[in-house]
TrEMBL record, chain A:
The keyword RNA-binding applies. One of its GO terms (biological process) is assembly of large subunit precursor of preribosome. Belongs to the NIP7 family. PROSITE patterns: PUA (PS50890). Interacts with pre-ribosome complex. Keywords: Nucleus, Ribosome biogenesis, RNA-binding. This is 60S ribosome subunit biogenesis protein NIP7. One of its GO terms (molecular function) is RNA binding. GO terms for cellular component: nucleolus. It comes from Penicillium salamii. Required for proper 27S pre-rRNA processing and 60S ribosome subunit assembly.
From TrEMBL, chain B:
GO terms for biological process: intracellular mRNA localization; mRNA transport; ribosomal large subunit biogenesis. InterPro entries: Loc1. This is 60S ribosomal subunit assembly/export protein LOC1. Component of the 66S pre-ribosomal particle. Residues 33-48, 133-177 have a biased composition (Basic and acidic residues). Residues 1-11, 18-30 have a biased composition (Low complexity).
Length: 212, 188
C-alpha cells in the first residue's frame, strides 16, 4: 500500500492517525439539549426536592457550575473549568468535574454513584440505618426493616431516597419498596429500600466505575 | 486540408509552407502508424427510433400528477399529518446553556414530580383508609361470632345444669331398652 510514495507522502499518511476517528468525533463535549436536560432533571428530581435549583444557580462566590455531556456521560463542572477544557482534545479527555451519570442508548438516564454528594445535599427523603445495617448495605444488599433507624413519615412507595448512617454520612441511594406507613407493619426481614448505588462500589466496581 | 494536399504532391513542390505542412503531416502519419493509441470501438450509427414505436408512445403518455391534483385524503400520505416539519427552521440540536432556560425546565420537572408524589400519597392514604375500614369490619364480625358462640355455650351449660337431676333416670331407661334392641338383633 505504501509502495511508490514519497517520504513526504508517508509522513502525511502517518499523521493521519492523529486525526479524530469517526468514533471519537462522536465524543463531543457539549452542553445538553432541551430534551436531555429534561430527562436529567427528571431523574435528579426523583431523589431531590425543590432545592435542586441550587445546582443551576451561582453560589455565594458567584461561581456557576454547569452540566456537560462528554460521550454519553454527563459531568457537573465548574463553568470556568468547562471553558478551559476546550483546549484538550476531545478524544483524549477522559473525565472532569463530578460525573452525574450516563445516557443509555435508549435515551434514558442512569445516575452514577459519583453523584451521591450532589443528591445527598438536596435529598427529598432520607433513610437512616443503624450501625448493624451499614456493612450489609455497603456490600450491596437492600435495606431491611430491622436495620432502619429513622425515616421520613410521608414517604410514598417507589420513591427515590438517600441512605445515610446515624451520623448523617451518605452511604448510597435507592428506591423505597413500600410507603412509610406500610414499612412500619413490616417484619424485620422485609425489604424497605431497594439499593441503587452504594459507596462500596468504589471498591467493588473500581475497574468499571469510570470507564466511558 | 492543405497539408494533406501537400503531402500528396510530395515534399519537393512547396517552399517553406509546404515543408512545414509536410512535416506536420508526416508526424501525424507517423503517430498514427507507430502508436496505435487506445483502441476505440468503431462508431455505431445511432438509429433514432421512429415515433411510432411503442416505447416512445408510452413515455409520452406518462404524466406526473401533483399532490393537489390527486386529491388524496390527508392520512393517505407518506408523511403523517402531525410529523410535517416546518420549512425554514434551523436543523440540529438546540442547546440549553442559559440559566433561565434551565430554571424553566427545572421548574416544570419539579412541578410534575410534585404532582406525581402528591397523587401517590393521596392514593396511598385512600388505600390505607379502605384497609382500616375493612380491618375494623372484620374485627366487628369476629366479635359478633365470638359472642354468638359464647351465647350458645352458655345456653348449653344452663341446659346441662337444668337437666342435671333427670339424667340418671334417662340412663336407666337406656339400660332397660338396650337389651330389647339386642334381642331384636338376635331375632333378625
Amino acid at each position: 500500500m505504501l509502495i511508490g510514495k514519497t517520504s513526504s507522502e508517508l509522513r502525511d499518511f502517518n499523521s493521519a492517525q492523529y486525526l479524530p476517528t469517526p468514533s471519537s468525533r462522536l465524543l463531543t463535549m457539549r452542553s445538553l439539549t432541551e430534551e436531555e436536560t429534561r430527562t436529567l432533571f427528571t431523574k435528579l428530581a426523583h431523589y431531590t426536592g425543590k432545592s435542586l435549583n441550587a445546582l443551576v444557580t451561582p453560589d455565594e462566590d458567584g461561581r456557576l457550575s454547569v452540566f456537560r455531556l462528554q460521550g454519553s456521560r454527563v459531568y457537573y463542572v465548574d463553568k470556568e473549568l468547562a471553558n478551559l477544557s476546550t483546549s484538550i482534545p476531545r478524544d483524549q479527555l477522559l473525565s472532569m468535574g463530578t460525573q452525574v451519570g450516563k445516557f443509555t442508548k435508549t435515551g434514558k438516564f442512569r445516575l452514577n454513584l459519583t453523584c451521591l454528594d450532589l443528591i445527598a445535599a438536596h435529598a427529598r427523603y432520607k433513610i437512616y440505618i443503624k450501625s448493624n445495617g451499614v456493612m450489609p448495605f455497603l456490600y450491596g444488599s437492600n435495606v431491611l426493616r430491622a436495620h432502619l433507624s429513622k425515616y421520613s413519615e410521608d414517604m410514598p412507595e417507589h420513591a427515590g431516597c438517600v441512605v445515610v448512617d446515624e451520623n448523617d454520612v451518605p452511604l448510597g441511594f435507592g428506591v423505597t419498596s413500600r410507603s412509610s406507613q406500610e414499612a412500619k407493619k413490616l417484619e424485620g426481614t422485609g425489604v424497605v429500600v431497594f439499593r441503587q448505588a452504594d459507596t462500596g462500589e468504589y471498591l467493588r466496581e473500581e475497574d468499571t466505575l469510570f470507564t466511558t | 486540408m492543405a497539408p494533406n494536399k501537400g503531402s500528396s504532391k510530395g515534399p519537393s513542390v512547396g517552399g517553406a509552407k509546404g515543408a512545414k505542412s509536410s512535416l506536420s503531416s508526416a508526424s501525424r502519419v507517423s503517430k498514427s502508424s507507430k502508436k496505435d493509441g487506445p483502441k476505440r470501438p468503431p462508431p455505431k450509427e445511432q438509429k433514432s427510433k421512429p415515433r411510432t414505436v411503442q416505447e416512445n408512445l408510452k413515455k409520452k403518455k406518462k404524466r406526473v400528477y401533483t399532490e393537489k391534483e390527486l386529491d388524496l385524503p390527508e392520512l393517505n400520505q407518506i408523511t403523517p399529518v402531525g410529523v410535517v416539519k416546518p420549512k425554514g427552521k434551523k436543523k440540529g440540536k438546540t442547546f440549553v446553556d442559559d440559566q433561565e432556560g434551565m430554571m424553566t425546565i427545572l421548574a416544570m420537572v419539579n412541578a410534575e414530580k410534585e404532582g406525581q408524589i402528591e397523587s401517590k400519597m393521596m392514593k396511598a392514604r385512600q388505600l390505607e383508609e379502605i384497609r382500616e375500614a375493612k380491618k375494623a369490619e372484620a374485627e366487628a364480625r369476629m366479635k359478633e361470632r365470638k359472642n354468638k358462640l359464647e351465647n350458645v355455650k352458655d345456653s348449653l351449660r344452663k341446659e346441662k345444669k337444668g337437666k342435671g337431676g333427670d339424667k340418671p333416670e334417662a340412663t336407666i331407661k337406656d339400660k332397660v331398652f338396650k337389651p330389647k334392641a339386642k334381642k331384636s338383633v338376635a331375632f333378625a
